[in-house]
């Protein structure tokens, strides 16, 4: 924990961290709440983040936040593994669903017809345009066919790397020269599942199929760790074989419906799960902070 020193030993971590944390940004009010969490207390927030929280607490807080329209995040690190869960409610609007700048291209010609065909060139580092079927576009700076300038966004159909079909231009003035066609990104509304449903139907996304068994096994390992802590009142002791074997037994009972279990991963995870490593916590914390900003 980066904000604590030797003199902090024995103190409440929230109280000991508050002053140093507040100094990072004087424009942010930082308060320490050391009493039990209550629904009345949670109801005052736009987003709630839980860390080092028992599964039972995660579930009731998650259900409450989902019902109240409060964004809910779980962030945790155990040993070398981290976990992040986000529930932004049933009607979360993403203003910019794509990464990077909107696509645009220079117009070379626009035909009169139904549909009209736009011939264009792309950006300096592209030989053609980068539009996709269904993209909404607007036009500006077109000479001749000025009806397109300021028109409501229209969907495009990609013919090839240089040509796009748009709507009916047969009644428009003849195209002369110039113009820019630009992508207009529309906000998207997403619906998130509460934690209780997400645990029943986990949707694990990985960069490659080879990573799926490992990711699924870590997901089960975290659930087994919660079960072990509920059973024993503590985390598994480091490198104690009996504790790791018990976590593995619990994982086997939890993961039978979700594909094969990588038992070596679960065993290793259980053996080091009592450890707190600042670099791992920093990575998980940074990811969680970005989700909070959303």
UniProtKB/TrEMBL annotation:
One Gene Ontology term of the molecular function aspect: ubiquitin-like modifier activating enzyme activity
Keywords, comma-separated and alphabetical: Ligase
SUPFAM superfamilies: Activating enzymes of the ubiquitin-like proteins (SSF69572)
Pathway this chain belongs to: Protein modification; protein ubiquitination
InterPro entries, alphabetized: E1_4HB, E1_FCCH, E1_FCCH_sf, Ub-E1_IAD_1, Ubiquitin-activating_enz
All copies of domain Ubiquitin-activating enzyme E1 four-helix bundle, residue ranges: 186-254
Family from the record: Belongs to the ubiquitin-activating E1 family.
Name of the protein in question: UBA1 enzyme
Organism name: Onychorhynchus coronatus
Higher taxonomy: Eukaryota, Metazoa, Chordata, Craniata, Vertebrata
């Amino acid at each position: 924990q980066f904000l604590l020193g030797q003199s902090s030993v024995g103190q409440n971590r929230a109280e000991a961290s508050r002053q140093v944390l507040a100094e990072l940004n004087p424009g942010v009010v930082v308060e320490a709440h050391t009493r039990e969490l209550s629904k009345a207390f949670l109801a005052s927030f736009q987003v709630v983040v839980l860390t080092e929280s028992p599964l039972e607490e995660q579930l009731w807080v998650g259900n409450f936040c989902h019902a109240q329209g409060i964004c809910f995040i779980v962030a945790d690190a155990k040993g070398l593994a981290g976990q992040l869960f986000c529930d932004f409610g049933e009607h979360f609007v993403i203003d910019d669903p794509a990464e990077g700048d909107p696509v645009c291209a220079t117009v070379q010609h626009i035909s009169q017809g139904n549909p009209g065909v736009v011939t264009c060139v792309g950006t300096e580092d592209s030989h053609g345009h980068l539009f996709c079927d269904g993209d909404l576009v607007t036009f500006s700076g077109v000479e001749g066919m000025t009806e397109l300038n300021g028109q409501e966004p229209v969907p495009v159909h990609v013919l090839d790397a240089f040509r796009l079909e748009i709507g009916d231009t047969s009644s428009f003035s003849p195209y002369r020269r110039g113009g820019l066609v630009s992508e207009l990104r529309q906000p998207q509304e997403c619906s998130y599942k509460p934690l209780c449903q997400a645990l029943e139907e986990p949707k694990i996304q990985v960069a490659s199929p080879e990573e799926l068994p490992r990711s699924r096994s870590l997901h089960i390992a975290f659930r087994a760790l919660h079960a072990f802590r509920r059973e024993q009142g503590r985390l598994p002791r480091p490198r104690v074989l009996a504790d790791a074997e018990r976590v593995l037994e619990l994982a086997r009972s939890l993961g039978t419906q979700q594909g094969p279990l990588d038992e070596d991963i679960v065993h290793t995870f259980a053996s080091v799960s009592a450890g707190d490593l600042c670099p791992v916590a920093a990575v998980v914390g940074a990811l969680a902070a970005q989700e909070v900003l959303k």
